[in-house]
Amino acid sequence: MKKTALSLCFNLIFSCQASATDWPTGPIEVVVPYAPGGAADVIARIFMDAVSQRLSQPFVVKNMAGAGGLLAARQVARAKPDGRTLIISGAASHVLAPLMSADANVDPLRDFTHVAYFGGAPSVLLAHPSTNIKVLSDFLTTARNTKDGVGYVSPGVGTAGHIVASYLAMKENIDLVHVPHKGGGTAILDVIAGHVKFASMNWSTAREHVAAGALNAIAITSDKRINERPELPTFKEMGYSSLVMATWYGLSGPVGLPSEVVSKLNKAVTDSLRDANVVRHLELEAAEPLALSSQEFTNFVGGELTRWAPITARLKQKNP
């Protein structure tokens, strides 16, 4: 009897090791914590197509919007760590939203295996052309002189767009009314239609609309002016050094992913950073790619949590 139990245990361990070594052997679900059409969705599909080609298995992208990315994060955190369920992690879903939420119910470090980093893109403050606002000083004046403040859209609560506008409101003592969406794809349509006159969101979601004249770009969160729009000033050069930030994305999974799976995924993502199609899209997104090991990516997430904790704490006090 004891021998049989021991044999079963040994077979189970051997089977798990073999499955991890053989992975991937079927479709892998990759959850994007936002609605289709936004920056996270676009970057996910670009990278997952490249990774799929390298690992010869389909990576199926699934959108699951809600709670600033926390809805998807919670579900993936509870998934079986077999490499079949992954998530596009990012600054919003794995740093800002958990810090801003009183009931996040997910720990960005404890509950995930952070696999590979993709890159980071800046956020931008936007205005509908009907406002005739093209510079930050005019935006601030309008906010100060508008009864009950001005409304702005963002991809959701706890996203970089939300944090940028909230920080600006706190710093300048102005009233900005947040109109959150479930992703940048729907938020951008709201401001283009003029339903809300301002927006704070990823540059990658807004760039084509700015180029077409459908939106005015006011200021961007990059450290330096971007090559595509050298006339667009940074928040940093206007005195807001805390607003140098990137909406970064990466690939993560539930805690406990086998090391073999992590290694294969990290290599596939790192190799994809040299893919001409991926490089071209990242350049269009004004995203800066960076090849990081799983441990380096985990350390990076920890550093982001440390960096943004004091600022998000102040924002929560001001806007409980």
In short:
The protein has helices spanning about 1-20, 40-55, 70-75, 90-100, 135-145, 160-170, 185-190, 205-210, 260-270, 275-285, 295-320, and strands at about 30, 60-65, 85-90, 110-120, 125, 150-155, 175-180, 200, 215-220, 245-255, 290.
Low-confidence blocks of residues: none
Q: Give the CA-CA distance, first to last residue.
A: 60 Å
Proportion of residues in extended strands: 15-25%
Please indicate the count of domains. Answer: 2
CATH topology of the largest domain: D-Maltodextrin-Binding Protein, domain 2
Question: SSE order in H/E notation?
Answer: HEHEHEHEEHEHEHEHEEHHEH
The general outline is globular
SS class: alpha/beta
CATH arch. level architecture of the largest domain = 3-Layer(aba) Sandwich
Q: Which CATH class of the largest domain?
A: Alpha Beta
Tell me the Rg in angstroms.
Answer: 21 Å
| Count of strand segments | 11
Descriptive report:
With 320 residues, the chain is of the alpha/beta class. It folds into two domains: 27-120 and 247-318, D-Maltodextrin-Binding Protein, domain 2 (3-Layer(aba) Sandwich); 123-243, D-Maltodextrin-Binding Protein, domain 2 (3-Layer(aba) Sandwich), CATH 3.40.190. Helix content is 45%, strand content 19%. The termini are far apart.
Descriptors for this entry?
D-Maltodextrin-Binding Protein, domain 2, globular, 320 residues, 2 domains
Layout of secondary structure:
Layout: H1 2-22, E1 28-32, H2 39-55, E2 59-63, H3 70-77, E3 85-90, H4 91-100, E4 112-121, E5 123-127, H5 136-145, E6 150-154, H6 160-172, E7 176-180, H7 184-192, E8 198-202, H8 203-211, E9 216-220, E10 247-254, H9 259-272, H10 276-284, E11 288-289, H11 294-318
Parallel strand pairs: 1-2, 1-3, 6-7, 6-8
Antiparallel strand pairs: 3-10, 4-10, 4-11, 5-8, 5-9
Helix pairs in contact: 2-9, 2-10, 4-11, 6-11
